Amino acid sequence: MSVAFRRESDEEHLEPKFELPIPPGPNLVTARGLGLIEANVAELEAKLAQALGEEERKAVLRDARYWRQRQASAQLAPPTSGERVAVGTRVTYERDGQQRTVEIVGHDESEPAANRVAFTAPLVRAMLGAEVDDEVELPDGAALTIIAIAAAS
């Protein structure tokens, strides 16, 4: 029989399951972000205490490894006065005649639809350290002006 017609198992045809990628660099988090990480770990620990099928258990263990590592490496961002753009600040800026407000957060609590942007985003990296009325040049050559900075609640 030709090797082309031989089938060893279904496993050899499945896509490999990789670990969830850990973002490079420091794991700076806000107090809210640390709470979210702790909640994810607790939820996954509770799932692992239940009876799970083999595939579901593997998936939960994979997620648990990611969140446990994120919890272990979490560094609470230093408190901010709101004078300079930093992790844990709410920043209002103007770009192309439009104002927008974003909250600068850690990687895992980033949610652009809710205006929470990670400190690793190119927009935020360009703004870090800026003060009110500073003009910031973005990587694409455009510029924005910092209108207001406040410590996020």
From TrEMBL:
tRNA-binding as UniProt keyword: no
Coiled coil segments of this chain: none
Annotated Transcription elongation factor GreA/GreB C-terminal domain residues: 83-149
Gene3D superfamilies for this protein: Transcription elongation factor, GreA/GreB, C-terminal domain
SUPFAM superfamilies: FKBP-like
Pfam families given in the database record: GreA_GreB
Keywords of this entry: Elongation factor, Protein biosynthesis
GO MF, one example: translation elongation factor activity
Transmembrane residue ranges: none
Record-given protein name: GreA/GreB family elongation factor
